[in-house]
């Protein structure tokens, strides 16, 4: 097979993960704003602060099915000397009371209904006894009811004018409920980036193809597609490019017109057919980095062309996954205007020793759990860069520092939490 035009491999300068992230950040811009209907707002990022246009609740609301009363009318009420009040009105939800409650009267009211102005408490149905007297309905109350009982005052939850949701907030179920409450049928959200995904490698088969000797199915593209979706991006599956440098170059450059940025996997190391290296050799954009002090994924490469990123992730699935988490995901979030772009880092006890010697900091696929009130993390198992099976089992990346002989069980260690 013909070799890629990769005889003169170019020099690599190793940068730390944080430095690589900093270089990316310098080119990171939010994409802009669009309007979506509330039903399509889930998972999107708010592009503006949302202020309450009204109080919540905006009327005095009953918390129980019962009777709206003046609390003062129950003064001295006891089983021995109950207070009797005449029922003057029935107030279902959605109804505006028409009759003023007096010290001698009560209005039957349902949960969520508007409490008449003069009433300052609601007594539960079960705490009253109803009777008919001379064609009138009366209730007897055997207990004093304090003012404010079972009554939600205007603005109890939210005051008109309050900032209820801040710009940059990701819209989940609770945010959606608030937007609906305040009548925001359409919301301004940050645009989602479209990301073209290429796999590279002549060994790659389409997922539907039968396996043949020496070939494998292209799993990275689909993994990246899922990761991009999780981060709120719009993935564009562009298929696999065979190991032909010229073809890779034209396809990748072409994709910049269809997407906000491009992610590739494979072909970034020092091999004869590592065609992304050739692409970056002919690159007339800015090279951000081409080697990172990390395992897996040390050959991860990134550049910018006309302010559009090209992330060339490693082909090894474990390294592709980690490269996405550390470099691509923050860009997808940042383009959507999210300020919290990086995975939360926590300190935890290592549940199982990790004894590999590390030339570079290592991001080990791990599982977190709580035992006796303490947070533990432990490696999920096979952790080689080439291993795919353990990706699904991990909810964190354990950061094993460079140097030394690994980390012992029980030692405190940092981990990036991958969920949430
Ligand atoms: N002599 C050296 N060899 C290697 C070095 C090195 O420094 N010197 N680095 C190793 C490291 S570290 C990594 S990580 C890998 C990086 O490999 P590439 O990014 O160049 O990826 P490929 O060579 O294209 O493929 C590697 C591996 O991954 C499989 N692969 C590729 N694409 C996919 C895909 N879409 N879905 C599933 N699997 C994929 C591919 O078949 C290979 O098995 O290089 C080391 N080598
Ligand atoms: O960068 Mo490669 O893992 O790190 O195998
Ligand atoms: Mg390679």
Automatic annotation (TrEMBL):
Residues 196-334 form the MoaB/Mog domain. Its EC number is 2.10.1.1. One of its GO terms (cellular component) is cytosol. The keyword Chaperone does not apply. GO terms for biological process: Mo-molybdopterin cofactor biosynthetic process. Catalyzes the insertion of molybdate into adenylated molybdopterin with the concomitant release of AMP. Belongs to the MoeA family. This is Molybdopterin molybdenumtransferase. The lineage of its organism: Bacteria, Bacillati, Bacillota, Bacilli, Bacillales. The gene is moeA_2.
